[in-house]
Amino acid sequence: MKVLPFIIPKPERGGLIYQVDKVNLFYDKLHQHEEIQLSFILEGNGTLVVGDTINNFTKGEVLVIGSNIPHVFKSDKSSQESHMLTLFFTEHSFGESFFNLEELKDIQTFFERSKYGFRPQSHIEEMKNLFLKLEKASKLNRFIISLQLLNCMVKSDYTSLSSFVYDKKYSLVEGDRMRNVFEFTLNNYSEEISLDTVSKVANMTKNAFCKYFKKRTNKTYIQFLNEFRIEKASKLLKEKSDYSIAEIAYMSGFRNISNFNRVFKKLKGETPSKFK
């Protein structure tokens, strides 16, 4: 099965899809799908890449990923279980004009936010309770709950999950190429990675790959790699109090402590020691 584009299985004539993922690790291949994704993380933590941006996900969070945004969940191997409840739907799942009804005009705010993906920052307990009702709900009640969730998300404070989204759908060939690059990066970030090496993963010359990656993510590959490494370092600084900053820098893929300090401060606004 090709990973990009990713097809969400849905029943005939069904507009709303409810999915439960209860596994050791979430599906960890870069993919995109037409449906907007509303997810609640019951268990698990790890890295979430959305569009051009590196994020972390943790237990208890609600996440929204917009239509056709490339994304990947990379569960931490230390997680004993990964458990996520998800609703999938499109803006036209319930008819071309459904969300244009006067009674639903406020929900347009949700669709604007979803274009870059977002993480609600308030009303989380209310959303959590709604997600937990989905399993035993009838199809009609799931539809009603979905509208209640959208209403919560419109009222909620939020942070965007991405700052740039490539405005064209990936072809199968492009999808495989970007998937391979992301998968290689997520699995090898702690090692030394050269542009020559990652260009070979993409099956391109170095110059062609650099232009290709920049056009589709609005940043260079080295920027993307450094952001990923710094997110990993940030997590280690919080969790590994007995490790030195030099050890964490090395574990995150940095071989030069001065460079690590410089990149960390640039991305986080403070030094690693202050962050710790």
List keywords for this structure.
Jelly Rolls, 2 domains, Arc Repressor Mutant, subunit A, 276 residues, three-stranded antiparallel beta sheet, alpha+beta, 17% strand, four-stranded antiparallel beta sheet, single chain, 10 helices, globular
* Beta strand count: 9
CATH topology of the largest domain: Jelly Rolls
Strand order of the largest sheet: 1-7-2-5
So how many helices?
A: 10
Radius of gyration: 20 Å
- Tell me the overall shape: globular
Level of helix content?
Answer: 40-55%
- Tell me the count of domains: 2
CATH architecture of the largest domain: Sandwich
Structural class: alpha+beta
The biggest beta sheet reads: 4 strands, antiparallel
The name of the CATH superfamily of the largest domain reads Regulatory protein AraC
Strand proportion? 15-25%
Global mean pLDDT? 91
Q: Please give the CATH class of the largest domain.
A: Mainly Beta
Task: Characterize the structure shown.
This protein is an alpha+beta fold. It folds into 2 domains: 17-160, Regulatory protein AraC (Jelly Rolls, Sandwich), CATH 2.60.120.280; 189-275, Homeodomain-like (Arc Repressor Mutant, subunit A), CATH 1.10.10.60. The protein is 41% helix and 17% strand. It contains 10 helices and 9 strands. It has helices at residues 108-114, 124-133, 139-155, 172-188, 195-201, 206-217, 221-239, 245-251, 257-268, 272-275; strands at 17-23, 36-43, 46-50, 53-57, 62-65, 71-75, 82-89, 118-120, 158-160. The strands form 3 sheets. A 4-stranded antiparallel beta sheet has the order 1-7-2-5, covered by helices on one side. A 3-stranded antiparallel beta sheet has the order 4-3-6, covered by helices on one side. It has a two-stranded antiparallel ribbon with strand order 8-9. α2 runs antiparallel to α3 (139-155) and α5 (195-201) crosses α6 (206-217). It starts with 16 loop residues before the first strand and ends with a helix. The mean pLDDT is 91.
